[in-house]
Amino acid sequence: MRRKLAAGNWKMNGTGAALAELAALAESHSAPAADILVCPPATLLSRAAEAARGIAIGGQDCHAKASGAHTGDLSAAMLKDAGASAVILGHSERRADHGETDAQVCAKAEAAMAEGLTAVICIGETLAERETGNTLKVAGTQLAGSVPANATGANTVIAYEPVWAIGTGKVPTLEQIAEVHDFLRAELTARFGAGTADSIRLLYGGSVKPSNAAEIFAVSNVDGALVGGASLKAADFSPIITALE
Ligand code: PEP
């Protein structure tokens, strides 16, 4: 049985004052029936880990190497040292802004796993890819290329995030979400076997809000959500978590 997961991606938002939102979230969900993960900017990781009280804290990226001449980058060990237990990898904004490839995402995931971090690996099609009927092809290629061979339910979470749904208010139909999530589960089963595949959580991400969370969470093979904008305020993220519990 997969435990549900509500993951928040604060992206490049938040200074110290934002930690009050995390504290409020922790207070409202002191004994949650679902896992909660908040991924603030790296500058807040240590303080977030102190304020989190039961909520897991994650990074938004890490370097594939353990150390060295990589100005501005952070290693998985540094994230862990700052209090992270997970890291988002291959978000479409990083794939677009930094040209990250599936192979690079896979290498980062291996580095994260080697440090004991859970890799939250993001995949998803652009609007052009959906409109040309390539959604499953893209999802399958990204999944195969971005997920390391040693993936397990403990070290890996997959987030299906259609690029066109991120931050736009546009959401796929429930049938479209089900089609991709069922496909991803089948692909994982073919590669890793049913035992491992059934233990890996599949999150949906893209304009999840309090008003649409419950219906999305009822979709087959949706084990939770990766939430951007609506994770910034406890008043928005809290009802999403409640919908998952
Ligand atoms: C995201 O950035 O991962 C995301 C899903 O953003 P939003 O919820 O704002 O669409």
Automatic annotation (TrEMBL):
Substrate binds at residues 9-11, 167, 207, 228-229. Its EC number is 5.3.1.1. GO terms for molecular function: triose-phosphate isomerase activity. It comes from the Bacteria. The active site is at residues 91, 161. It catalyses: L-erythrulose 1-phosphate = D-erythrulose 4-phosphate; D-glyceraldehyde 3-phosphate = dihydroxyacetone phosphate. It is found in: Cytoplasm. Belongs to the triosephosphate isomerase family. This is Triosephosphate isomerase. It comes from Leisingera aquaemixtae.
